[in-house]
Every structure is written in C-alpha cells, then in structure tokens.
Design brief:
With 244 residues, the chain is an alpha/beta fold. Helices cover 37% and strands 11% of the residues. It has helices at residues 8-13, 19-24, 33-42, 49-52, 63-68, 128-143, 163-174, 188-191, 194-197, 200-210, 229-240, and strands at 90-92, 95-99, 102-106, 150-154, 181-185, 214-218. A hairpin with a 2-residue loop joins β1 and β2.
C-alpha cells in the first residue's frame, strides 16, 4: 500500500454515521434534522464516503440518494418489521433453517452502509468474541444436519466480519462433506469495494478455500452508476480468486 493511501479500516472509520453530518455535507435540509434523528435512533445511518460520491442530485429524485439517505417516511411505514417471517424459521439466534437443504446464518448485523430499504434494519450488533462463539455453534449445527447441502452467510454484511471470523467459517464449513457450496451475502463490492481491493489477506482466504469447496459471492447492483472502476476491480479480484 502506498503510504498516502488509506487502509480500508480508515476508510470505514470515516463513514457518515449521523444526521448532523448529513446536514453539514448538504445532503439533508436542516429543518428536517430533528425528525430524521428520531428515525436514525430506530434505523441507524451509515454511508461510506465512496458511496456518497455516487450521488448526482441531493434529493429523492436521485436513485443513489434514495438508497443511502434516511427518509422521514421510514418512521411511518406500515406492515411487518419481520417481512420474510424469519422468526418462525429461527433455530437459535442467527441460525435460520427455512428450507431443508439450506441454512441461513446471520453472521453480523454490521454493514459499511445501511441501505434504507433493508428488511433487517431492526437488528443489533455483537462483539467479535460473541460472533466467534456463534460461528462454532453454527458450523456444528450444519455438521449435524446432513440434509443441508448449502449455506448462506449473510448479515448485516458478511464481509464486514473480520478476516479471523471469515477464516473460521471457511475452515469449518469446507470440511463438511455434505455441503456442496457456501455463499456469502454482501453489498461490499457495491458500497465499499475498498474492503476487497485494500485487503489481500481477505482475497487470499477465499482463494485458498475455493480450491476445497465451491464458494459464491452473492451481491446486488441496483443502478448502473454503482458499476464503478473500483466495484468492477473488487468483483474481478474475487472471480480471479475462484469465487464467482
């Protein structure tokens, strides 16, 4: 890394996480600040500086703006908080087994950016120590269920786990013979490609275990403007590491 370049951790620490910052940067009108602060108490705000730079117009006519800037309407939305009935399929905290052959692991609730449309906005965070304990429990559950042939590690954002946690998942799951493939659910290539582009250790982890077990990166690009050089570089790094 060039000494003038920032690490991905530094980049992440500079994410905009308060309504006051959004006001100061001109993304939110000052007269809406107090009401939006109440929204953010329920549904946290976090936007990477990288993703903010993709906004072309500072209002809700801009599709990138809509995806990352909190709206007053979020506090008046009707319907269920648990929109996909996850609670009914939860075996234990963070482990969901809705379909016989698939297990979903909510590995973290942390994201580099909290997408405003997210249906898991209600969740809260955990420490790395707590996540590692959960990781071992989740791997054991899958080992004990031979009908499970694939696992989706989601969140939050699965790539916002530390390399230590990601390595534990890859090491443990790749040894399970009845697993055909492992998926990682993430918006990182889209909203924070620095996590991949700036961390060779992460890419090497995936490259190592992709030779043992089929691994997929499941992501979503919602608008052409998200297809930046940095985003393409991040997805290319993962593909070249053997992870479609």
């Amino acid at each position: 890394m060039n000494k003038n370049e920032k690490s991905w951790q530094q980049e992440l620490s500079e994410a905009v996480t308060t309504v006051d910052e959004l006001v100061d940067l001109g993304y939110v009108k000052r007269e809406n600040a107090e009401k939006l602060k109440k929204v953010s108490e329920k549904y946290p705000v976090s936007v990477t500086r990288y993703y903010l730079n993709l906004i072309q117009k500072n209002d809700y006519s801009d599709p990138i703006y809509k995806m990352c800037i909190a709206s007053l309407e979020e506090d008046t939305a009707q319907g269920l908080k648990d929109t996909s009935g996850e609670l009914c399929n939860t075996i234990s905290e963070g482990i969901q087994h809705k379909y016989d052959n698939t297990v979903l692991l909510l590995s973290t609730n942390i994201c580099s950016m909290y997408c405003r449309y997210c249906f898991r906005k209600r969740l809260v965070g955990q420490s790395e120590e707590e996540i590692l304990k959960f990781t071992d429990k989740a791997i054991k559950y899958i080992e004990e269920h031979p009908e499970v042939d694939n696992v989706l590690i989601s969140g939050g954002d699965a790539l916002l786990n530390t390399n230590k946690v990601i390595g534990r998942y890859l090491s443990g799951l790749s040894k399970i013979s009845h697993l055909k493939f492992i998926r990682f659910g993430t918006r990182t290539p889209v909203v924070f490609p620095q996590r991949i582009n700036g961390d060779s250790e992460l890419v090497e982890l995936f490259e190592k275990y992709s030779k043992i077990k089929t691994i997929y990166l499941v992501t979503q690009f919602n608008h052409p403007r998200e297809l930046t050089e940095e985003a393409i570089a991040a997805t290319d790094k993962m593909r070249h590491a053997g992870v479609p």
